[in-house]
Design brief:
The complex is a heterodimer.
Chain A lengths: L11 E11 L4 E8 L6 E7 H11 L9 H12 L2 E11 L2 E10 L2 E7 L1 H11 L3 E3 L1 H5 L7 H16 L1
Parallel strand pairs in A: 4-7
Antiparallel strand pairs in A: 1-2, 1-7, 2-3, 4-5, 5-6
Helix pairs in contact in A: 1-3, 2-3
Chain B lengths: L1 E12 L4 E8 L5 E6 L1 H11 L9 H10 L4 E11 L2 E10 L2 E7 L1 H11 L3 E4 H18 L2 H5 L4
Parallel strand pairs in B: 4-7
Antiparallel strand pairs in B: 1-2, 1-7, 2-3, 4-5, 5-6
Classes of the chains: A alpha+beta, B alpha+beta.
């Protein structure tokens, strides 16, 4: 597995705060915050259906039919595979890469993943989400908090029309 | 009794703004149309055309998840049809045991195509399908559809 930096710096734990709709591009922005209380955000742009898969996991409203990530969770429950954690491990040209850590009967396995799949599954399995210090430092949208709040205000306005 | 089905293609259904996966049996005597959403259709389409997307899709991730522990998809079965909704089961082997997991047909088909696993339909689904399909077809008919008969 490829890592940009192999350091022993501690990982930063994140929690999904909300999923914001970017109606101009039909994408979704997953907004994550640090569990240590630091105020900066971490944002990941994902496709509409991937964003909805994360949103559904957040609002705990059960969908009438098991969706794709519910099926993966169900495979895990049947086979006894435990999801240990998700780590956002790399960023290249504004594209994030994630690694999913799995364990079954003492056998540990990792799989490479898009952040959207990793986060959608982590939320369903109550697994923690981490980012490396390196990826945290190189995150995009560091100055986008103002833009984000404007986007959300605009969306609220649009819904009222 | 179950019948093996092949994925014959994908159609766009403009009335429902959805996609239809067409399954046919080997004798071409039975057909199952299954309505799926846009993202499920694009995942099935990539598997049919054997195209590797720049980033793994959710069903590729699902396959990696199973591959990581050498769990194998043996077959998928479209098991039931109720109120225009199909139900499916995924059959797996893992560590010398067999498992059956409930699934939507779209996930089952997308995973089967990536696992080279056969797709089956139960006899009851094929039987119900012919009557439900007629009902749905009649429901979707609009006055202008009748007009076409005159021309």
């Amino acid at each position: 597995m490829e890592h940009v930096s192999q350091t022993n710096e501690p990982l930063i734990q994140l929690t999904v705060d909300r999923v914001v709709e970017d109606s101009t591009t039909d994408t979704r922005i997953v907004v994550l915050t640090r569990t240590d209380g630091a105020s900066e955000h971490f944002m990941v742009w994902v496709g509409a259906s991937e964003g909805e898969a994360i949103r559904r996991a957040l609002d705990t409203s059960t969908t009438p039919r098991p969706m794709s990530h519910d099926l993966i969770k169900s495979f895990g429950e049947h086979l006894g595979i435990k999801m240990e954690r998700v780590v956002l491990t790399d960023v290249k040209s504004s594209t994030y890469y994630a690694t999913v850590f799995l364990e079954n009967k003492g056998v540990a396995r990792t799989i490479d993943s898009r952040p959207s799949d990793a986060i959608a599954l982590a939320l369903r399995c109550q697994a923690p989400i981490y980012v490396t210090q390196d990826v945290w430092k190189r995150r995009s949208g560091q100055n986008l908090d103002a833009w984000l709040s404007k986007l959300e205000t605009k969306n609220i306005g649009a819904q009222e029309v | 009794m179950i019948t093996q089905m092949q994925v014959k293609g994908l159609m766009f259904d403009p009335y429902n703004n959805a996609y239809i996966v067409i399954l046919r049996d080997d004798d071409q005597s039975e057909m199952l149309p299954i309505w799926v959403g846009k993202s499920e259709a694009s995942s099935i389409s990539l598997a049919i055309e054997n195209v590797a997307p720049p980033r793994p899709m959710t069903h590729d991730f699902m396959k990696s998840y199973l591959d990581a522990f050498n769990a194998k998809v043996i077959s998928v079965v479209i098991t039931d049809l109720s109120e225009h909704t199909y139900f499916a089961k995924v059959h797996l082997t893992y560590a010398d045991s067999e498992y059956t997991v409930d699934s939507r047909p779209s996930d089952a088909i997308a995973l089967a195509l990536r696992s080279q696993a056969p797709i089956f339909a139960s006899e009851s689904v094929i039987r119900k399908q012919s009557s439900e399909e007629l009902d749905q077809w009649l429901e979707n008919l609009k006055p202008e559809d009748f007009g076409k008969l005159d021309s």
